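Entry:
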Amino acid sequence: MATNNSANTYIVPTANNEVTQPSQPAFLAVLNGAWANATGDGTALSPMTIDLEIFDQNADFDTGTYQFTAPVTGVYEITNSVGISNAAGHTVWLLAVITSNRQYYSIYTDDVNNFLNTSNNTTYENGVFADMDAADTAHIYCRVNGGAKTVGISRGDLTDCTTHFSGVLVC
């Protein structure tokens, strides 16, 4: 039995009692293309241009502002990943989820060369459970310091989610 009103179905159980919620806020978006020489000299990418939706169940992610807007007050799991290229010699990496209420930073200050593959590329990830009020926004922030502006951001597309931004209402 589905829970619905005259216009929408909100909770849908399957024959095996799995439950889906088609209107539950949830999104996954990626960077549509790569950026060469995006940072490395401390240039902040905020908000990052995450502009290609894979899915957006409740139409809460805006590909023009690169932000998620919470439709209801609650706790949201927000995750992101940023692929970094041409990064040898840089020393400080900051990756963050910035919400209306808080900033959730992951800061990497070790010798970057320890994290690079043979092509001088790596991927950094950040994830949080963020308390958000209705109409609060969230976006990704990224900055690399310690060298020249030679660090690129790896692309994403419909099959490669190297640089992505995602979120879901948890409770």
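The domain at 24-169 is CATH 2.60.120.40 (Jelly Rolls).
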